[in-house]
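Quick one, probably user error.
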């Protein structure tokens, strides 16, 4: 039988080629392509024609089934992101930047689930057991009934799990796991794929929940092949700035609950403490409203969150004006600037534009368009909005304003925090008793009536 040819796989993005090259054509990384042996293949020349397998079990779609049981812990923000608690047999992948607090969060979660009655094993491939115990002592968790294992050999870990039969396993991290049936270094694409497959299969076959920690690339994506994210049931990203105390646990995939749900934590000396009302925390440092400051009422998953958008517009000393964005989409900012100039007659040529979402939040929904435009106009015209005003709405390329979903929830959250006025698109069905709603048909009306410009 002819020997199967090996593949050359990029260790950054997972792209496979038939020959080696110094630079990956998919992601542009240099010296990231490594030769890897192919995974085992079936016997050559055999087809399925005369080989009969077992019949698959068929179930009617209308067959009633109870929802999967869940185990909640004392960390309500984590339970919210998971969809109400931990589902038995689920595979969860948690990614985040180095030093952001992934190990701290999962050690606290392991202690919380253990105290709720689950049998928990924490397998660390990056730290010794003494280091994990030292962190637990610092967090006040040294008495938690959690068993530790400092091991990187995947076969040994699975053998231990078969013997101990835990209900929850935390693997920190998947990039340090080494499978002896794959001839490549730990952390390579083949090793990560094989380790994730083995752990996910173990979770499904033994009804054991498995939480895997994944490193991220410089682009913020979980390192390794994207097939790992397709294998697991839930993908969580732990976000935040190192110099800021806020941390956000965001669900980008969840087969047992809503996606795009967030949990907000605050990094303290005693570990991560959950934030029950993130809107009040994000607005706590707002101070006196200044030109360029606008409060936006957004929706993250199922919860409304109020954040402050800050804009600064200044003359540029360069031939090409700068457009700097933190926490929002830069291409959408370019679109808003183009609509302001083409439909409202507000030029931004020769002006540097800086936009920042306060508190380390990242906003992706189009409902922030009107708040961004209001912040830019406020900074350019040097006019501050009233402190009790909240803004939201989507802007079309024609300059018209479109209503957004869950407007009433946005207004209720704003009213709960003391806001009495809202600027929003006309045509929606939002109502808020006790609030003054200023409904606008298009962006030109906002420019003329609110800022007196244009």
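Nope, works fine. Designed sequence:
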């Amino acid at each position: 039988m002819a020997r199967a040819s090996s593949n050359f796989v990029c260790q950054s993005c997972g792209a496979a080629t038939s020959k080696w090259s110094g630079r990956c054509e998919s992601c542009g990384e240099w010296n990231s392509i490594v030769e890897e042996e192919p995974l085992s293949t079936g016997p050559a020349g055999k087809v399925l024609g005369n080989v009969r397998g077992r019949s698959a079990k068929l179930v009617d779609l209308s067959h009633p089934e109870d929802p999967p049981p869940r185990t909640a812990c004392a960390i309500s923000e984590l339970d919210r992101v998971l969809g109400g608690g931990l589902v038995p047999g689920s595979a969860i992948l948690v990614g985040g930047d180095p030093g952001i607090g992934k190990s701290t969060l999962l050690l606290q979660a392991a202690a919380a689930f253990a105290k709720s009655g689950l049998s928990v094993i924490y397998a660390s491939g990056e730290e010794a057991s003494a280091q994990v115990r030292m962190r637990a002592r610092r967090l006040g968790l040294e008495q938690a009934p959690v068993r530790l294992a400092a091991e990187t050999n995947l076969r040994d870990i699975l053998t231990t799990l078969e013997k101990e039969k835990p209900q929850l396993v935390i693997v920190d991290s998947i990039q340090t796991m080494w499978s002896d049936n794959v001839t490549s270094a730990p952390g390579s694409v083949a090793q990560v794929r094989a380790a994730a497959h083995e752990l996910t299969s173990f979770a499904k076959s033994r009804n054991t929940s498995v939480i895997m920690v994944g490193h991220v690339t410089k682009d913020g994506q979980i390192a390794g092949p994207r097939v790992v994210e397709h294998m697991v049931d839930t993908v969580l990203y732990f976000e935040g700035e190192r110099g800021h105390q806020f941390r956000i646990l965001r669900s980008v995939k969840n087969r047992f609950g809503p996606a795009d749900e967030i949990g907000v934590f605050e990094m303290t000396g005693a570990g991560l403490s959950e934030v029950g009302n993130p809107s009040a925390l994000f607005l706590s440092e707002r101070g006196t409203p200044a030109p360029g400051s606008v409060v936006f009422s957004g929706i993250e998953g199922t919860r409304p969150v109020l954040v402050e958008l800050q804009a600064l517009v200044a003359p540029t000393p360069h031939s090409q004006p700068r457009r700097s964005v933190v926490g929002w989409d830069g291409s959408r900012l370019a679109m808003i600037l183009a609509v302001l100039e083409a439909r409202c007659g507000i030029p931004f040529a020769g002006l540097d534009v800086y936009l920042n979402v306060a508190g380390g939040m990242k906003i992706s929904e189009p409902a922030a368009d009107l708040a961004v435009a209001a912040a830019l106009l406020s900074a350019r015209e040097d006019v501050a909005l009233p402190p009790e005003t909240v803004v939201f709405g989507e802007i079309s390329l024609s300059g018209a304003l479109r209503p957004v979903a869950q407007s009433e929830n946005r207004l209720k959250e704003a009213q709960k925090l003391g806001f009495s006025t809202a600027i929003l698109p006309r045509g929606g069905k939002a109502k808020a008793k006790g609030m003054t709603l200023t409904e606008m048909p298009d962006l030109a009306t906002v420019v003329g009536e609110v800022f007196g410009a244009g």
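The chain has a mean pLDDT of 87.
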